[in-house]
Amino acid sequence: VNVILLGPPGAGKGTQAKRLVDERGMVQLSTGDMLREAKTSGSEMGRKAAEVMDRGELVTDEIVIGLIREKLSTPSAGGFIFDGFPRTLPQADALADLLAQMGQGLDAVIEMQVDDAALVARITGRYTCGNCGAVYHDQTKPTATPGVCDACGSTDLRRRADDTEAALSKRLMEYYKKTSPLIGYYYAKGQLSSVDGLADMETVSAEVAKVLDSGK
Ligand code: AP5
Ligand code: ZN
């Protein structure tokens, strides 16, 4: 099964993607995570992308399509979860071409619906484990022991450089201008399903599972 998780910053794409990896052996392809890895590696591309990301703008289609192309060359029996990709119409077209070349297609596109007010609270409360990538929240999902990752025991808990209110308002604008047209694009193809992203994490997971198991 190949699925796209579509939604604004803080909608819960990464949270749900990680659950699908654990529960279904799928492979998560998060272009945001790939770009942050490139930043940490200190490569020229990573440094350039980091500047753009920290402002809350989108990096070029060329860079992210290249990253996805590379990852798709390793097959996944459980399928791929596209998290934060595609984000523009050219990226959506490129993904369709890449999957077609592999003799595959998309099985579902899940739009996670949330409102802006909730996003600010989600983003400003978020922290992640620098070692294993687990995602936490000050109010809705704190670690059991303060300062220690539940999943791996690491004390390297971090906040993202673009999780400020200023960068978030830019990220939201980019989403509405460049990414939200994909909702109509996939609706027209009969591939779109929507879930209420404001529900608690368990409920959202159950809704996502329902879509995947219905084969849409
Ligand atoms: P990216 O890393 O993709 O960030 P994003 O889309 O802004 O999404 P987030 O990771 O912020 O949110 P999420 O939906 O995954 O939410 P999460 O599960 O963490 O992109 C970052 C940047 O990289 C972009 O701005 C751009 O510059 C660049 N980039 C990436 N991809 C690109 C592309 N394709 N093209 C061009 N540029 C690209 O949840 C958020 C918080 O809420 C967490 O604390 C979580 O614990 C909590 N939470 C989650 N679900 C619930 C729930 N149901 N109830 C209560 N709390 C919840
Ligand atoms: Zn961890």
Automatic annotation (TrEMBL):
Domain Adenylate kinase active site lid: 126-162
Binding site for AMP: T31, R36, E57, L58, V59, G84, F85, P86, R87, Q91, R160, R171
Record Gene3D superfamilies: P-loop containing nucleotide triphosphate hydrolases
GO molecular function per UniProt: AMP kinase activity; ATP binding; zinc ion binding
Record's keyword terms, sorted: ATP-binding, Cytoplasm, Kinase, Metal-binding, Nucleotide biosynthesis, Nucleotide-binding, Transferase, Zinc
Enzyme type, top EC level: transferase
Catalytic activity: AMP + ATP = 2 ADP
Swiss-Prot/TrEMBL GO biological process terms: AMP salvage
Statement: the UniProt record of this protein carries the keyword Transferase: yes
Highest taxon in the source lineage: Bacteria
Residues that hold ATP according to the record: G10, A11, G12, K13, G14, T15, R126, V135, Y136, A199
Region described as NMP: 30-59
Presence of keyword rRNA processing: no
Subcellular location: Cytoplasm
EC number: 2.7.4.3
Pathways per UniProt: Purine metabolism; AMP biosynthesis via salvage pathway; AMP from ADP: step 1/1
Pfam families the record matches: ADK, ADK_lid
Positions bound to Zn(2+): C129, C132, C149, C152
One Gene Ontology cellular component annotation held by this UniProt entry: cytoplasm
Job of this protein: Catalyzes the reversible transfer of the terminal phosphate group between ATP and AMP. Plays an important role in cellular energy homeostasis and in adenine nucleotide metabolism.
UniProt comment concerning the protein's domains: Consists of three domains, a large central CORE domain and two small peripheral domains, NMPbind and LID, which undergo movements during catalysis. The LID domain closes over the site of phosphoryl transfer upon ATP binding. Assembling and dissambling the active center during each catalytic cycle provides an effective means to prevent ATP hydrolysis. Some bacteria have evolved a zinc-coordinating structure that stabilizes the LID domain.
Assembly information from the UniProt record: Monomer.
Family per record: Belongs to the adenylate kinase family.
Protein name (Swiss-Prot/TrEMBL): Adenylate kinase
Species, as recorded: Cereibacter changlensis JA139
